Amino acid sequence: MYRFVKEYDKEKITEFVNKSELVNLFQCHPWEEVKNNWKHHFTAVLNEKDEIVASALVLKRDLPLGKCLFYIPRGPILDYSNYELLDFFLDNLKDLAKEEKAIALRFDPNLCCREYKYEDRENQGERKYLDLIEHLEAKKYKHGGFTTGTSDNTQPRFNGGTIVGENYIESLNSKTMRYLRYCELCGIKIKQGSQEIHNLAQSIKYTEQRKGVALRNEEYFQHIYDTYQDNCLCITSYFNPDEQFQEIEKLIKEAETELASDISKKRKRELENSLTRYQKVFKDLEKAKEDYPNQEILTGGALAYFNENIMEIAYMGNNPDFLHTRSSYLLYYTCLKYCQDHNIKRCSFGGIDGHLNDGLTMFKSAWDLIIEEYIGEFNLVLDPLMYFGLSKVHPFLLKLSAKLRKR
Fold first, then answer.
1. Which CATH architecture has domain 3-108+377-406?
2. Fewer CB within a 10 Å sphere, N or C end of the chain?
């Protein structure tokens, strides 16, 4: 009834993924180009009509002693209620993994066991797919558990995102719009294109220094951009304190002049509130002028890639000296406006901490945040001794490497 194919047409597999309810960018063919330090297989299952009914981009990491690790990010893609198809596919993937001396077959399905709006986080409901977890564990695939940390699994088990409708931007909450207006008062501008890769990398370094972590370098960001090309947004945010200082001076004088005239109480309150904001920006710009005379200042950057169905805002960094400008709001706004303008319905904000109380999650909540709690990671261990070394020693080496990179 079914036929397993070790190497299938990657364009056809991407088309199948994009039509699936489980669509995600990590199972489409550009991802294997991004992960060019891994080998790969584009596997598929065909039915009796030679139609694709299941697929998986399998990433293969070479290890010492001729061993490797098989990993399927956010996959496989198939109907998980069809256990016959699922078992057939996994049995063939297991045989392929054994044939190529993999120490384990690892995968984390793109299945949300719970999905809810951020404001409904106190009423998350019951988890789904518990029967699927039981079925897979009976087949010796060990479930990694309902973890909460972003680094507890290969991919974070919690993700933030939103649905972008045709009136999405117009429906943003008042707090978000207020911060966007504040960006405008500060004179924040957006630049876009491959020429901004270097400055994007600099903005990511700010985040590395602030959080004490090692992220990605300029070469990696250039590689992503080269891979996705027209399906990639590289944007950075700037302002020039000297230029904006003059604009704010003008706004203050206009407000003070109007306040001195005969106006209504309502208009007076509006002007007084505006004047308070202008004066705050004035002080910040005055200090920035002193510290960075006649300079254009980089305040942040973001990198996103997308297809016709979904955008992934993968990286963002902010200059810690200018967080008060709220330029990160303008960066996100630019990405989401692009989604709205190009009819991209889903936007992923990336992994978040499962406790939902950290600063990054709070920022993402400003964008009609939907919490996606994935079912989690599964491992079929094929070489227990080597797998123990990978799971225990390898994380230590990664942390050591991160410390060295930070230095």
1. 3-Layer(aba) Sandwich (3.40)
2. C
